[in-house]
Amino acid sequence: MSERSCPVSGTAGGRCPVGTGSVRGSQLGPRGCSFSGFAQPGDVRTAFNIPNGVETEEWLRMRERKAINEILYSDVPSTKELNATSNIDALTANEQDLLAVALGAPARQVLLRAEEIGRQTGWRDGFLSAEFGFVPPDMDEAVSALATSPGRVWSDLCERMPGTVSRGRFREAAAALPVIEGTEDVIPDAALWPALVALGLLCSLYRYEEKHDGHEGVSVTSGVKSTHLGDWGDDVLEEVRGLPRSIGRPYCQISKRMGRPIPHLTFVDQSSYNVTVKDPKSKHPYVGRFDNTELRWPIFGDPTEKAFLKGCADTSASFQHGPDAIAACQEAVMKRDHEALLREMIRLKEILERMPNAFHTISPNPSSGENFVSGDEWVRWAKFSAPLSARAPASSGLQFPPYLLMDAFLGRKKYESFLGAEGLHLRAWAPSNLRAFIAAVEYHYSIPEFVAKSDDPRLHGVMDGIVEAYTGERGFMGVHRYKVFGLLEVAAKTGRTETNGNSGQSGVIVRPWEETHKQFSEAMKERLEPFRGKITSEPHEMRGTFEECRFRSRILTRQFVDNDPKRSIAKVTLDLQDTGITFQPGDRLAIMPLNSWEECAKVALALGVEEMLDSPVGLTGKWPRFADHLGSVARQPAPQLAVRDIIRRGHLAPLTQSLVLKVHSMLRASSNVVLQVLATNEWPVRGSLGDLLQAAVVDTPSHIWDDAFDLSSNLTWLTDLIEIEIPRTYSISNYPDELLPSTLDLTVSRAEYDLCDTFAGNSPSVKSGVSSGFLNPSLTSSEETLPIEEDILIGISRPVSFQLPLDGAAPCAYFAGGSGIAPFRSFWQARAGRAVGRNILYLGVQSREKFCCENELREMAQAGQMEIHTAFSRDSRGLVFDRRSGELMEKHTPPRYIDSLIVEQGDTVCDLVMSKKQGGLGGYLYICGSVSVFDSVMAGIRKAIYNHRSTTMESSEAILATAFAERRVMLDVFLTPKPLAVNLPTIPQSELALHTGHRPNTPVWIGVHGKVYDVTDFAPIHPGGTLIIRSNAGVDCSKTFDDLAHTGNPEVSSLLTRYFVGLLTPKPDYHGVEELSNLYDMWLGYLRTVVETLVAQQFQMSRFLGSAMGDPIDTDNWWFQNSVNGIDLINIKGIRSFYQYQSRLLQGGFSAMFGAKLQELVLKLSFSLANSSSDGASTRLPDVLGAVARAKTSENAVAVSRQVAQIGEFVRDSSGARFMERGIIAYASKSVELDISLLEDIRQEACYGIDAFESIADIDHANDSQTMTTLASFLMQLLERMAKRLEIFYSNLAQHSIVQPAIERNPARTRWHIVKQRIKDGSIFILASQNTVMGATAYVPEKAQHIVNFDTVLSHIHKTLAEAPPQEAPATSKPTLNSLHTQRTLEPKNGTSAFESHANGTALHNMSSFVDKNMRAIRRLSKLPPMPTNFDIMAQMHSTSRVGVTTPPSSRSSSRSPTRMMLSQGGGLNIRGMPMMHQSSPAMDSYANIMMPIPGMHTAQHPPTPPLDGAAAINSMMGKLNVRSRSTSRASSPGIMGNISHTPSMEGRSQSLHLRQTSHPFVPGHRARSSTSTSLRSFKLSQRGGQAQAIKVAPTF
Ligand SMILES: Cc1cc2nc3c(=O)[nH]c(=O)nc-3n(C[C@H](O)[C@H](O)[C@H](O)COP(=O)(O)OP(=O)(O)OC[C@H]3O[C@@H](n4cnc5c(N)ncnc54)[C@H](O)[C@@H]3O)c2cc1C
C-alpha cells in the first residue's frame, strides 16, 4: 500500500494531497498525515470499519470505486414503504445530492483545496488540513523562511522582547530597527505567518510600552508622555500611527498580503502561531500539547504568560483532528451511512471531550508548577491585548477556530448574546480557508438535522454527548466559564480595568466577574436551546441535579466482587445498549437513585395514598422541570407525574431540617414526635420521611392529619413536601474494548447508618443509604428480588484530573481503600496489553474476604501486568507479592492500614513519587477512596520519603510538591456528607472578617449560607486555585457559591463538613425598622469591600514584600532578571508593577474605602443625625469627608506621590534604576507594609461598627429614633477615625525614600549618580502640576476643630455626584458588532479596577436615589440651592467623562491656601465658608459622651481617641433606652454587651473567638433563647424571643 491509494483523499495514483513531505514509495506519508496511520494496520481497519477477513488495500480501493448510485441508493426502500409513499419523487435523489456526491462533501473539498494550495502560498488563507486541523503542519518551517529573509530583524527583536522590556529599552530597540519592506520581493510567501505574528507582537508591545511608560499613574510631569520615537508621517493607517516605521510599515504590508485589511493581533497569533513544537513526531493524542510545546516569542517572559498562552494554544490544538472528523461526518450524512456517521461522531465527541482537559493545563493552582497562571497577572495581560485602534478587532478567545466551527456544526442560529454577537463579528475577520470551511459545514448537509430525523437512538445519544462535551455545564464551555470566573474575580480585584461584555459598567448590579459569568451563560444557553428547548435555569443550576442525567438505563446484574457474604460491596452492571454513551477510564457516573419500596410504602400508607399510586399530582417546585427533563430525555412530551413517581424519586431520607419543619407546619405543630425530632442537635436526622410520618400519624389528631394531607385535592401538597432527590456519583469500573460500550460496571459499597433513637426506640436498626441501598441492597431486604420497572436516569462526567498518562510506558501506582478500587479496574482494563508501563496496586481493605476483584487481579499479576500489595486492617492472614512469579503468597502479617503498607514498600513508592530529574521514575500516582483513605495514603507517602530519601519533613514535602506540580498525583475522593451539629456557638460577622489569612500562617475563613468554614488547609488543594478561595476570605461568599453551583453539590458540601467551625451570626432583626436594616446592609457592604480589598491587595503585596509576608517570591523574575552567578539586572517589571499598584491606590485615594462608598455612609448617617436632631440644619457633625480630603492632599501625601512618581520615571528611563535598586525595593516593601496596616486598621474600625449593629438588636424598637441617633453618632466617629488613619498612613510613608545610598551595592556610585542627576535636572523633585498628583486639587488643612453641618456634607456629595462619570446605559438592544470591540480600547478609568469602579458606581447611584427619595427632608435641612437629584439626569448633564470619585473639597475655605484658590479657579463647586458650630445638640452630646481617651494616643501619629468598642459604647447609653425582652440565659451574661469583647487597643486584633451560645436547636440566631431542648412545648410558644422579662440596665453616665 502506498500513497497511490491514499485513504484520506481516495486519490489513487495521484500525488499526496498533503504535499511534498512524503517519501515516494515508502510506507509512511508525510509527517503526521493520517496516511501514516497505515503503518499501524489496526488503526486503519478501525478507522475505515474494514470488515474482518477483507484485505485492507482491496477494500479501500473498492470503497473509492463505489458508484454514485450505489452510494445514494444503498438502502432500497421496502415494498411496504413504497406502497405508503404518495409522492414518488421523494424516492429519488435530488440534483444537489447527486452533484455533491460526484464532487465530494463540501467540507472535504475545502479541506483538500486548502491543503493543496496552502504550502505554496505560505498558508496565507489560513491553516487548514485534515491531519493538523487549524494548526500549522510545521511550526518551524515558516520561521526558518523568515530567518533567511531580511525580515529576520523582526524575529531577532522578538527574541529580545523580554530582555528589552526588563531593561525598559524595548521602544528604543524597535525604533532602531532598519526599515524592511513587507512586500513580495523582500519577504517570501513562505515567511508570511511568522512575519505577521512577529510584527503584530512588536507593534502591540510598542503600544503597551508607550501607554505604560511610568506616566500613566502618579506623575510629576503633568501628563507629558515620553517622546514619540515612532512618528513617520500622517499618511498611515490609524492602527500604526505613532509606531516606528520599522515595524508599522511592514506590519501593514504583511497584513494586507494576508487578507487583513486592518492590521490586528489575534489571540491565535499570540498563542497557536507563536509556539514551537518540541517533538513534531509525537502524535499522542495530538501534536500541540502543552507538554510538547514552548512559547516561541514570549513577550514579557513571565511563567504566567507562558502558561496562559500555551494553555490556549493547547486547547485549540486539542481539536487538531476536529475538521477531519466533521468533514467525515458530512460525507457519511451525504451517503446516509449511519455506521460511518456514528463512528465519526464518536471520534468528534472524543476530540471535544479532550478540550476541557487541555484547558485545564491553565491552572490557577500555585502548586501546579509551570502550568500555574496567577489571576492577578491577568491584569497586565488584558492591557497588552488592547486592540491597536477602536476599529480593529480585539483579541478574543472567540477567535479560536474550533468554537466558530463547532457553532456552525451544531447549527447555532441565535447570536444575540454579547458573546454571540462578538463571535459572529470575529468570524468575518477569520482567514478565508476557515470561513469557507465553516460555510461548507453550516450550509450543507446539517449533521444535527440528519440525526434528529433518524430513528437511531445511538446517533441521538452521541449527538447529545457532542452537545454536552462542547457546550454543556460539564463540557468545555462550562469548564471555561468556571475558570474565567475565578481568574477574573482575582484580576478585577487586583486592578484589571478592562471590561468584557460591559462587565465593568458601574450601573450593572452584579459585580464585573459575575456579569461576565452571566454573559457566558447566555451564550451557552443559545447553543443548547436547539437541542434542549427553552432553558429557563442557569447552566450552573443544573450541576448536581437530575439535569446532569440525560440518559436512561436499567440495572442488569448485581454481583459479588469478593468473598464477603453480606456483599457490602457489589459489582453493579448497567445496560447501555442504544444509549450512545461512551466513556474513558477515570470517568464517573451520575445516577438518580430510586427510593426503596419499603420507604415508599411507609410514606404511602401513612398518607393514605397507597391506592392512588398512579394518580396524577399537581407539580410544584422543581418537579415541573423534572417532568420536562424526563420528556426531553425520552424525546417525547413531558409525562404526567403520578404519586408513585414522587415518592419513588423524591427525597425521603435522611430527614433535613426543612423537611421536618414542613411536616411540623402542615400538622399545625400538633405532633409530639415531630417536635421531638425538631429538638435534635444534629442535622440531618438519621431517619426517613416514612419513619417520621409513621410515627406522627399515631400521635396527631386525625382531623388535622386529614386537613394537612387532603386526598380530595390534586395533591400539590405532596410535591410541596417532597423535593426531587439529587444524583449520586460513582466511579466507572470497566473499560470495554467496544466503539459503543453496551454495559457499564460500578463498584458500589453499601452505606449504612444507625436509625436515630426517636424512631428506633429500644431496638437499634441499621439503614442503608438511599443510592447505595438501591444499587446494592442488603441481601436480606426485599429490594433484592423486586423488579425495577422504572428507567434510571444516568449521566457521565469527567473529573478535572483523574486520567491515565498519555505515555503508555509511564509507571502507574494505584492506592485504593475499600471500594476505592472502583476506577482502577477501568484503568487496568484500559492498559492491559496496550501499555508497557508498570501497574502497581496498593490496596487497603478490612480482611481477606473483602479483597475485591481478587481473581481478575491475580490473572493480571501472573501475566506480568500488575503488581499487588495489600494491607488488611482486621486480618492477619496477609498476602505477599512475588514479583518474579506474579503470585500472591500467604504470610502471617499483623493487621495494618494502608499507610504502613506504603512505608513498607517505601523504596518503590519513592521512586514513583520522584521526578525523572530527581532520579526517580516520574510515576503517576492515583489515590481513591474515602477521605480517611486519602489522609492515610498521604501520611504513608510522606513517611516513606522521609525514611528513604530525605532528612527532614520539609524536604519530603518539597519532593511531594514537585510530583503535584508535575500533575502526577491525582485524587478521586469519595465524599459522603456527614450530619452537622447545630448547637454550636455563632460567629459574628466581625469575627469572620478578621480571618483573611493574608498574613503568613493565619487562618482563612469563609462564610457560606449561614455557616463558617476554616478552609486554611483546603485552600492549597482547591481545584479552582488558591487565589479564588482566598479572595473570598473573611466574607460571606454564598453568592459565589451559588454562581459556581457549589451550593447543593453533594461533593462540595461533603467536603465542607470537614472544615465547619460554626454558624454565622445572622442579620439582626430590627423588627421592621427599615432605616436601621438598610444601614446595617450598607455598613456590612462597606466592611465587605474593605475585607476584599485587603485580601486582594495582598496577592500583589506579597510579590513586593517577598519574605516579609512569608510567601516565597520569584525575585529572579520580579525584581531581578536572570540572576546568574550573582549578576543581577534590575527588572523593570518589578518597578513598573509597584508603580502601577501604588499609583492606583494613591490616585484613587484608596477609592474602594475612601471613595463613594464612604460618602454614601456619611450622607446617610449625617442625614439621620440632622433629621433626628432638634437643631435640624445646624446639627453639628464630624467633618469626615473634609478629613479624608485633607489627608489625601496633605503635604505628606504630596511627598509620597513624588516618590512614586520618581519610581515611575525609571520605567521610561531605566538607566538610573541600577543605582537605587535596593532603595526602590526597600521602599516598595515598606510602602506595601504600610498599605496593609492601613487596610487592617480600616477593617478593624468597620468591625467595631458591625458589632455595634449587632448589639442594638436587643434594644426595644419603640425607641427607634434614639437608637438610631446613638448608633449613627458612633458610626460617624468610626468613619472619622478611618479618615485620620489615612492621614497617619501618608505621614508614615512620607518618612521613607528610595534614595538610600548606604544600602546599595556601590554606595559611592549611587551618591555620585544622585549628585549628577540633581545638577543635570534639579527639578526632578518639583511637582510640575498639582493636577496630576492624586487626581484632585490640593489644599492645606486647617488646625481648627473639624465640625461641620449638614449643608457641608451635602455639598460634598453634590460635588461628587456632579463630577461622576456619566452612567453608561445598560445595553438593552442588540449591540452593534463594532461597538463591542470599540469598548475594549477604552482607556482605564483613573486607574481604578473594575471592582472599585463597580463598588463606587453602585454607591453613586444609591446616593443619587437617596437624595431623590428624601428631597423634602433634605430641603428642610439644607440651605443649599436644590440640585438635580437623579443621578442619570446629572450624568447626562456632564457629558465629559470625568473619571473616578474625586477628592471632596475642604469643608471650609482658607484664605491662606493657594490651592483653595485653584479649586475655585478650576470651576469646582463654590463652598461657602461654614462658621464653627459650638452649640450643643443631642447628636453631638452623644458623640462627645462616647469618646474615651486612651493613654499614649495623643500625638499626630495616632488616630483620634478611640471610642470603646461598639458594644460598650452603645451600652453606655442604655439607660435611656428600653430593652427588648430576652431569654434568661441571655440575662445571665455579664452585661448586655458583655458577650462582645474586643481589645480596646487598635493594634491588638483579637484572633480569639468570642462566640455566643445559642441554645435553640434550629434557629441559628446568635441571641440565645430560653432552653428549648428540655421543653418541647415551649418551642411552639417561643418562636419570637420567648417570654422573659425585660431587663432594666442602670445608666452608666
Ligand atoms: C467522586 C465520587 C466518586 C464516588 N465513587 C463511588 C464508588 O465508586 N463507589 C461507592 O460505593 N461510592 C462512591 N462514592 C460515594 C457515593 O457517591 C455515595 O456518597 C454513597 O454511595 C452514599 O450514598 P447513599 O445515597 O447510599 O447514602 P445517603 O442516603 O446519601 O446517606 C449516606 C450518609 O450521608 C448522610 N447524609 C445524606 N445526606 C446528607 C446531607 N444532606 N447532609 C449531611 N449528611 C447527609 C446520611 O445521614 C448517611 O449517614 C463516590 C463519591 C464521590 C463524590
TrEMBL record:
<dbReference type="GO" id="GO:0010181">
    <property type="term" value="F:FMN binding"/>
</dbReference>
<dbReference type="InterPro" id="IPR036400">
    <property type="entry name" value="Cyt_B5-like_heme/steroid_sf"/>
</dbReference>
<feature type="compositionally biased region" description="Low complexity">
    <location>
        <begin position="1446"/>
        <end position="1460"/>
    </location>
</feature>
<protein>
    <recommendedName>
        <fullName>NADPH--hemoprotein reductase</fullName>
        <ecNumber>1.6.2.4</ecNumber>
    </recommendedName>
</protein>
<dbReference type="InterPro" id="IPR001433">
    <property type="entry name" value="OxRdtase_FAD/NAD-bd"/>
</dbReference>
<dbReference type="InterPro" id="IPR000898">
    <property type="entry name" value="Indolamine_dOase"/>
</dbReference>
<feature type="region of interest" description="Disordered">
    <location>
        <begin position="1441"/>
        <end position="1461"/>
    </location>
</feature>
<dbReference type="GO" id="GO:0020037">
    <property type="term" value="F:heme binding"/>
</dbReference>
<comment type="similarity">
    <text>Belongs to the indoleamine 2,3-dioxygenase family.</text>
</comment>
<dbReference type="GO" id="GO:0005829">
    <property type="term" value="C:cytosol"/>
</dbReference>
<dbReference type="InterPro" id="IPR037217">
    <property type="entry name" value="Trp/Indoleamine_2_3_dOase-like"/>
</dbReference>
<dbReference type="Pfam" id="PF00175">
    <property type="entry name" value="NAD_binding_1"/>
</dbReference>
<keyword id="KW-0479">Metal-binding</keyword>
<dbReference type="GO" id="GO:0016702">
    <property type="term" value="F:oxidoreductase activity, acting on single donors with incorporation of molecular oxygen, incorporation of two atoms of oxygen"/>
</dbReference>
<dbReference type="InterPro" id="IPR017938">
    <property type="entry name" value="Riboflavin_synthase-like_b-brl"/>
</dbReference>
<feature type="region of interest" description="Disordered">
    <location>
        <begin position="1"/>
        <end position="23"/>
    </location>
</feature>
<dbReference type="InterPro" id="IPR001199">
    <property type="entry name" value="Cyt_B5-like_heme/steroid-bd"/>
</dbReference>
<dbReference type="Pfam" id="PF01231">
    <property type="entry name" value="IDO"/>
</dbReference>
<dbReference type="InterPro" id="IPR023173">
    <property type="entry name" value="NADPH_Cyt_P450_Rdtase_alpha"/>
</dbReference>
<dbReference type="GO" id="GO:0046872">
    <property type="term" value="F:metal ion binding"/>
</dbReference>
<dbReference type="Pfam" id="PF00173">
    <property type="entry name" value="Cyt-b5"/>
</dbReference>
<keyword id="KW-0408">Iron</keyword>
<dbReference type="GO" id="GO:0050660">
    <property type="term" value="F:flavin adenine dinucleotide binding"/>
</dbReference>
<feature type="region of interest" description="Disordered">
    <location>
        <begin position="1561"/>
        <end position="1583"/>
    </location>
</feature>
<dbReference type="GO" id="GO:0003958">
    <property type="term" value="F:NADPH-hemoprotein reductase activity"/>
</dbReference>
<feature type="domain" description="Cytochrome b5 heme-binding">
    <location>
        <begin position="984"/>
        <end position="1065"/>
    </location>
</feature>
<dbReference type="InterPro" id="IPR039261">
    <property type="entry name" value="FNR_nucleotide-bd"/>
</dbReference>
<dbReference type="GO" id="GO:0019441">
    <property type="term" value="P:L-tryptophan catabolic process to kynurenine"/>
</dbReference>
<dbReference type="InterPro" id="IPR001709">
    <property type="entry name" value="Flavoprot_Pyr_Nucl_cyt_Rdtase"/>
</dbReference>
<keyword id="KW-0274">FAD</keyword>
<keyword id="KW-0285">Flavoprotein</keyword>
<feature type="compositionally biased region" description="Low complexity">
    <location>
        <begin position="1570"/>
        <end position="1582"/>
    </location>
</feature>
